[in-house]
Structure formats: structure tokens, C-alpha cells
Records
---
Amino acid sequence: MRYNVAQLLKEEIGSTRAYPIGQGSDSYNEANCLWLMRTDRGIWASAQLSTLGTSVCSRCLVPFSQSLELSIEEEYYPVADVHTGKPMEVPDEEGAFVIDDANILDLTEAVRQYRIALGPMKPLCSEGCLGLCTVCGGNLNLQDCTCLDNAIDSRLAPLLQFLNREG
Ligand SMILES: [Zn+2]
Ligand SMILES: [Zn+2]
């Protein structure tokens, strides 16, 4: 996810480049594409990608793969002048994306942030996930656990005893 943009930085404002993203890697499919445009201050990155990442189910705590379609729109600012290598002003915004002093634009961090922003707050491995047993901690998707039945039995025991006596 690292692109050398030295050449593009030397071109005039409005120049563009398109790249395929992460071909041959498992995490990104080939429909993904990155489009870069030289701006007055840096490079505008526009990327469409579907990522496959691992999330942890908020109910049963089991990791599962989840695919997310990301549409990234970010401006990247060079930390060094491409011609002279002199340091450049980078906007003082928090989380501004930069092109490093080797003219590498790295999309990884943006992808990470977009995934977090887009991902569900409470991911579920499946809609019907049964979660964990509150008594023994077992995964109820994988095992039938009788803890809850037993718990109810013990709570009802005095009542049952009473009924037995009366009966
Ligand atoms: Zn689950
Ligand atoms: Zn249990």
C-alpha cells in the first residue's frame, strides 16, 4: 500500500495517476483502484477498495473475517520538497496524512482508520450468534450448555419442595 509519488509531485497541478491496489494479496481484491491527483499543496488520493479483515464478535468473542467496502478521499501533504529535499509545511490538523521524505505515499493508515470508522461498533459473527454462557463462559454456538437450566432449577427448588410438601 506504499506508492512512490516523486514523479507525480514534479508534475503540474491536476496531473493524475491510477494504480491497482494490492494485487495478489489476500486482503484486497483486484477491483480495487487508487487514483492520485496532484494538488497545489500535495496529492489527492481517491481509493475504492474492499478489504477483508478480522473482527472479533462482540457476543461470542470469536474472530471472524468481515469484508468492508471503503471509499477513501484524502489529501496527502509532502513533508519535503520533491526538488530540493527541504522540509515543507504540513497542515497542523490532527491526523493529516503525509508523504514521507522518500516521497512515499502510504495508504495503510488511512485504510486502517476508514475500516474502524465504517466497521460496526458491535460486530457480530452472525445475526443469530448465541454468545457466551454467563455462568461457565462456554460458546453457546458450539455447545449446548445446561448452566442456565440448572440455575433456574436451583432458584425454583424451594418452591418445588414447598409444592411437594403441600401435595
Ligand atoms: Zn459470535
Ligand atoms: Zn454454561
---
Amino acid sequence: MSSDTIRRRTVTDATAYVDPARYEDERRAVFAREWTSVGAASRVAAPGTYLSVWVAGFPLVVVNDGGTLRAHQNICRHRSGPLVDDGSGSCGRFVCRYHGWAYALDGTLTSARDFGEEVDPADFSLTSASVATWRGLLFVAGDPTVPDFEEWLGPVARHSANFPMESFEVTHRSSHDLAANWKVYAENYQEGYHIPLVHPGLNRQIDSSRYEVVVNGPATVHRAPTRDGAVTDGAWLWRFPGLALNLYPSGLCLESYWPTGPTSTRVEYTFCFAPGTPADEAEGSVTSSVAILDEDRAICESVQRNLASGLARPGILSPRHEAGVAQVQALVDDALARA
Ligand code: FES
Ligand SMILES: [Fe+2]
């Protein structure tokens, strides 16, 4: 993206960060059409295990159907009851929690309680969603016809090829809710310009004046040398709209985020470490990631309050620091235009 294009892209319309109608458009144009990671694939490794999650307002259930992963909307075809409660569990079939219609794990209706022949099961299968796994991570999309997963992943696969992700073990998971529009958080993630002001601790470790965000289509690679001049042995990768993957030879931090409303965002962390990683080392890395998130949360929520005030005016982006912000805004615009 050229410097001029970046400068021209500004926070032109604060309503994009508060408007419920805009949120509805973005749910469908962005999050239903893009893949979102919902953590480690080990969550549904055993036959019959399921994971039920809300992603950008879409209630989805991923289930291991005898070794085949399937994703459905967690919405009964009778009168929209839930098939399973939120969270994980295991079952041999889905029995709706409202009136007891039953479905096979592949989504076929097997029994419409007390209805008899007036219900043709072929007319009332569960609505499919999309599911994929990649190197131990689980991804879903609300739309059953999303882009091919490997193609979608693009440069993220290439940049992570040398890390032994499959050998890492999941040790920590956590969810964090932010009172900010998902784009406020995404744009903040995509620049290192704020590091000296917002993350003093991190700023003592890395040379934030040399923080680089290299844009490559819908993905970016972040880089920053440490203060002592050492080259980091990790890869910090991002893929639109909500995937951030920090990889090291000794482990990984998967960060996944999505909107939970027009002005709220869920951030989910999954930490995995190489077998034998000392517990205090793992704990230390989790604690510092969550502390950085808390610092980002505070600034994002302040920005959100200002955007919601009705007084925020168009700004300007730095070609040196904010190419990643321009990238988020351009990708959202493109998705909305395509829809
Ligand atoms: S809503 Fe599911 S059985 Fe009625
Ligand atoms: Fe930050």
C-alpha cells in the first residue's frame, strides 16, 4: 500500500465503530465469510465431543462425528431452540433442549417428537457451517461456502512452517471481553506506534522505534528487535479479521478475537508450550501477555468512548507506523463492497 493511500485512509466515520446496522453488515460480510480460530483442535479430538461457541453473533457447534469434524448452527429447526448449551461436552446425538427434537451428529433430523409423518426429516436438517483444522488449531466460519481454508491462510502457513506446532501442548486458555468495537482492537493490534505510551514494560524489552508491520494482502508479519539488539527467534503473524499467532521455538500464543456486539469484542487466548517447558516460564509468558492485553483494553475502551461521543473527527494515518491500520480499514471496506 503506497504512502499516499495510507495517508488518505483515516478514521473518517466514527459511526462505523458504534452503529448497530454496521455491525450487522460486518457480521455477515466479514465474519461469516472469513475463518475464525476457536482454539485447539484437541477440544474436539474424541468421537462425540462437541464445542459450542458464539462467533460474531453466530451460534455454532463443532462436533466430532466418528472422526469427521462437522459444524452446524446450534439452532433447532423446530422453533430455534439450542441443541447444546454453550461450552464443550460429548453426546451421541443432539437432542434439542426445548421440545426434544433429535438430530444425528451429521445434522440429519432423526426424531420430531410427537409429530409423526407430517414432518419429513429431509426438510429439517440442521444448517451447516464450516470447520477446518490446521496444525493443531481449530477454525470455524458461519457460512457453509467460505473460501478454501489453506488458500485463506496464505502467508501465515508459509511463515509458520519451521515451527513444530504439532508438538506443543495446550497449557492455558482464557477469554477476555472488551468494551470496544472489534475494529478498534484490530487496528490497535496492527500498529506498534502506541507501544512506548501504552506498554512501558514491553517497550523496555523491544526497540519499538524499529517495530515493523509488513503487509501482505490480508496477512501481516510483525517484527521488532529486542533492546539488546538480538533478533527475535519468533514469528508474529496476523490474518484478517481476527487471527493473531505468535510462534516461538518453545511454544505459541494463539489470539483470536471477534465482535460480540457493535461495541464489544471477545479476545480468546490459547497458549501451547513444548513438552518440558518449565512451568514458571510458561506462567511468566501467559502473565505478561495478559498484562499487555489489559493495557490494550484500557486504551481501546477509551478510544471507543471518544468515538461514541459523536465528537470524533477524521484523523490521519502514519505511512511509517500505521500501514496495518490502513490494511484493516481497506479489507473491511472491500468485504462490505463485495457483499
Ligand atoms: S425448538 Fe427444538 S424441539 Fe422445539
Ligand atoms: Fe498494544
